[in-house]
Write a structure and sequence with these properties.
Helices cover 36% and strands 13% of the residues. It has 320 residues and is α/β, with parallel strands linked by helices. It has a single domain, classed as Rossmann fold (3-Layer(aba) Sandwich), CATH 3.40.50. An eight-stranded mixed beta sheet has the order 3-2-1-4-5-6-7-8, sandwiched between helices. β1, α1 and β2 form a beta-alpha-beta unit. α1 packs across α9, α3 packs across α4 and α4 packs parallel to α5. It is globular, with a radius of gyration of 20 Å. 43% of the residues are buried. Belongs to the short-chain dehydrogenases/reductases (SDR) family. Keywords: NADP, Oxidoreductase. This is Short chain dehydrogenase/reductase. InterPro entries: NAD(P)-bd_dom_sf (IPR036291), Sc_DH/Rdtase_CS (IPR020904), SDR_fam (IPR002347).
């Protein structure tokens, strides 16, 4: 295996989609505290994200980004280059859960579906799967073949090309739902199985080109994605279920970037107070004790709700 160069986030520039809240905001704040510039790419910023940008205004910047738009993703990369001259870390972290977005158990055309029949695609997969794949592809293109600065830029030359001596990083957010079946959320599970598989497939980029692509697979994380949605919280038993904190996930993401132990293709599972590498072959699977922050105790409530929906002709009676 190639000898990898030490990598520190200090003095680097990161692009983080979904940085306006949750895990991605915690990661952005951690990088900023380590002297890393951060581009916040999101549709909007929660008040706490605005506070972070105000605190680190010389290092942080925001560009409104719809991650389902490839044009917006292109503008995001151009913005980072125009603002900082280069970028070294990409986290295509924006993601949504099912429900509230696409819901396999409310097909397009049913009254509660967020996916219109005429759009011919699922919003959740656009955000959770297509966007991180495309963002990774675009980052690799910029790193392998750097563009000259735009006319009038404050920068005089293209950034240096990626190499083993000038390494770059991509860190994805998968989930334990990419390892275990979640009956109530099959589209979400499919997206996270896909992300974990995508990470594995790009492992050879690091020893060959200096691009490390890896990711984290958190359990149940206390973020607005859960806490502001009662339809999700009903699956949690507050008396015995543990939460993973966004800061725990952010710290693991930093380790994936900086530590040579987590070479390209690594998927690092994050529970409450513990992490482990997920093996490619013969993995024993996550710890299924609710106190570990991996699963929720009341998931049968969500599963039973799905069964009820399947008995409703108004939801499942349409065939086109």
């Amino acid at each position: 295996m190639a000898l990898f160069q030490p990598f520190s986030v200090s003095g680097k520039t990161a692009i983080i989609t979904g940085a306006g809240s949750g895990i991605n905001l915690a990661f952005a704040e951690l990088l900023l505290s380590r002297n890393c510039n951060v581009v916040f790419a999101d549709l909007e910023l929660r008040p706490e994200a605005k506070d972070v940008i105000a605190k680190y205004q010389s290092q942080a910047s925001f560009i409104r980004t719809d991650v389902t738009s490839w044009s917006d993703l292109s503008k995001m990369f151009s913005f980072a280059l125009e603002t900082y001259g280069d970028f070294d870390i990409v986290c295509p972290g924006a993601g949504v859960y099912e429900p509230h977005w696409s819901n396999f158990w409310h097909p397009p055309g049913s009254s509660e579906s967020r996916d219109a029949l005429e759009q011919d695609h699922y919003k959740l997969l656009d955000i959770n799967l297509t966007h991180p794949i495309r963002a990774t592809q675009m980052a690799i293109s910029h790193w392998l073949y750097p563009r000259e600065p735009a006319k009038g830029s404050k920068f005089n030359s293209a950034p240096p090309k990626v190499s083993l001596s000038n390494p770059k990083r991509v860190v994805h957010i998968s989930s334990v739902a990419g390892q275990i079946p979640v009956f109530r959320a099959p589209l979400y599970g499919a997206s996270k199985f896909g992300i974990s598989g995508f990470i594995r497939c790009l492992a050879q980029l690091e020893p060959r080109f200096g691009v490390r692509v890896n990711g984290v697979a958190p359990g149940v994380v206390r973020t607005p994605l859960w806490t502001e949605h009662p339809e999700k919280l009903m699956n949690v038993d507050a008396a015995q279920d543990a939460w993973v904190t966004p800061q725990e996930v952010a710290q693991a993401m930093l380790q994936c970037i900086e530590e040579n132990e987590y070479f390209g293709g690594t998927v690092l599972e994050i529970g409450a107070g513990h992490t482990r590498k997920v093996k490619v072959y013969n993995d024993p699977g996550p710890n299924m004790d609710p106190s570990g922050g991996i699963i929720t105790s009341n998931s049968a409530l969500g599963d039973d709700e799905v069964i009820d929906w399947l008995h409703e002709e108004a939801i499942w009676g349409a065939h086109d």
